[in-house]
Specification:
Layout lengths: L2 E6 L7 H16 L3 E6 L5 H12 L5 H8 L1 H16 L4 E4 L6 E3 L8 E4 L2 H8 L3 E5 L2 E3 L5 E3 L5 H12 L3 E6 L20 E3 H9 L7 H10 L3 E5 L7 E4 L12 E5 L2 E10 L4 H11 L7 E3 L6 E9 L3 H15 L3 E5 L2 E7 L9 H11 L6 E5 L2 E7 L3 H11 L13
Parallel strand pairs: 1-2, 1-9, 2-6, 3-6, 9-11, 10-12
Antiparallel strand pairs: 4-5, 7-8, 11-12, 13-18, 14-16, 14-17, 15-16, 18-20, 19-20
Bound molecules: adenosine-5'-diphosphate, aspartic acid and magnesium ion.
Length: 412
């Protein structure tokens, strides 16, 4: 029988009534003749609450115990949804990540999936059960509970779909699909019928949280069709597909933002060969992620070096930056967490000039100062003051005509 994997996010399972509603959708799929594996998140707000408790208990929560704690949210939801299905007359069985055979490495709170032993899931499906799996979690080879990082249930779902060779992985969420920009920030955002894996990867890497980036990587690698759609409507959502299946190649297809970054500046760093390597090597050795980097023009043999890191890593990066600054004889180190990164993304940008110009002009017309710039073949990112995030997204969305008919690139 064809297998469908359905993932429901936190808002979709936010209370008892919503879990009952999810059960109805699962039953409809089962009735249509599919084997169904459901992957669920914790109820809305629960994971944040658990993370808060861990941070209240300890300044540096022990990694293993942190995962034991934050994984409990999903365990509540699998049990509740299985009860709802059983009460409606449909045999269902809940599985923790470990019980479902999700084997990961030992990197607590950011574990990577090594393999999925699907035997237990397959046995339950063969027994005509609906399989309900806790997302976001797995276990290492010693049986320790691990978690996959925030938003990780998306990755659990697509990985399970790949392992079971499912027909589709449906990602049910609180919006109707993937939009040209966050519909909660840009009211005129337009739903995309299709988006390529590569564009979705770029959007996810730039902060669009509708899909966790690793889920898109799994989808691309194993060819899993991903259908992002709303829990609360029957409408078709957005299909994430290979680029060759795309109907149109857009110059700019979306505007994204990421508020979760902070900026670090090392002032008056001696401008000699090897300095950048000396600055960034210890930061990456500590497992910290540097994103945008800008070095100012050298003045009298010194220059300022500015870079961004995820906001939650700022406290770890600063002492390292201070130490390097002292060693290298720089003047000082400063930081700023009031920034946001706003990006325009589009596969068609590869062969189109003028996107950067239009982007910078639009921001300048709104009086928004650009603090840093970063480009790749298919995106341009700028760092601005965080308070201008909405204004920047809306005006760029308008400037690139994303709310109306798509801007289609010429054939060549
Ligand atoms: P879930 O709890 O279902 O996993 P998330 O909150 O992780 O849901 O992701 C859905 C949210 O992603 C939406 O509510 C929306 O605000 C946000 N989002 C940001 N950018 C986009 C976009 N381009 N298209 C759709 N949703 C987006
Ligand atoms: N509950 C986890 C989180 O909030 C995983 C997820 O929802 O995808 O990050
Ligand atoms: Mg999510």
């Amino acid at each position: 029988m064809p297998i469908v994997v359905q993932k429901f996010g936190g808002t979709s399972v936010g209370d008892i009534d919503r879990i009952r509603h999810v059960a109805k959708r699962v039953i409809a799929t089962k009735r249509a003749g599919h084997d169904v594996v459901v992957v669920v998140s914790a109820m809305a707000g629960v994971t944040d609450h658990l993370v808060g408790l861990a941070n209240e208990m300890s300044d540096a929560p022990h990694a293993r115990e942190y995962d034991v704690l934050v994984s409990t949210g999903e365990q509540q939801t699998v049990a509740l949804l299985s009860m709802a299905l059983q009460d409606a007359g449909f045999p269902a069985r809940s599985f923790t990540g470990a019980q479902a055979g999700m084997r990961t490495d030992q990197a607590h709170s950011r574990a990577r999936i090594r393999r999925i032993d699907t035997e237990k899931i397959r046995l339950a499906l063969a027994d005509d059960q609906v399989v309900v799996v806790a997302g976001f979690q797995g276990s290492d080879d010693d049986g320790n509970i691990t978690t996959l990082g925030r938003g990780g249930s998306d990755t659990s779902a697509v990985a399970i779909a790949a392992a079971l060779d499912a027909d589709v992985c449906e990602i049910y969420t609180d919006v109707e699909g993937v939009f040209t920009s966050d519909p909660n920030v840009v009211p005129k955002a337009r739903k995309l019928d299709r988006i390529s894996y590569d564009e979705m990867l770029e959007m996810a890497s730039l902060g669009t949280k509708v899909l966790q980036i690793r889920s898109v990587k799994f989808g691309k690698r194993y060819g899993v069709p991903i259908h992002v759609r709303s829990t609360f409507s029957e409408k078709e959502g957005t299909w994430v597909v290979p680029e060759t299946e795309m109907m149109e190649s857009l110059v700019v297809s979306s505007v994204t933002y990421n508020r979760n970054e902070a900026k670090v500046t090392i002032h008056l760093l001696p401008d000699t060969p090897g300095v950048a390597a000396q600055v960034f090597a210890p930061i990456s050795e500590a497992g910290l992620l540097v994103d945008v980097i800008v070095q100012n023009v050298s003045r009298e043999g010194h220059s300022d070096l500015t870079f961004t890191v995820p906001r939650e890593q700022l406290a770890q990066v600063l002492p390292i930056a201070q130490k390097i600054a002292e060693e290298l004889g720089a003047e000082s180190v400063s930081s700023d967490d009031g920034i946001a990164k706003v990006s325009v993304v589009g596969l068609g940008m590869k062969d189109h000039a003028g996107v950067a110009g239009r982007m910078f002009r639009t921001l300048s017309n709104e009086g928004i100062n650009i603090e840093m710039i970063n480009t790749s073949e298919i995106k341009i990112s700028v760092v601005i003051r965080e308070k201008y995030t909405e204004l920047a997204c809306r005006s760029l969305h308008e400037a690139f005509g994303l709310g109306d008919a798509p801007m289609v690139a010429e054939e060549h």
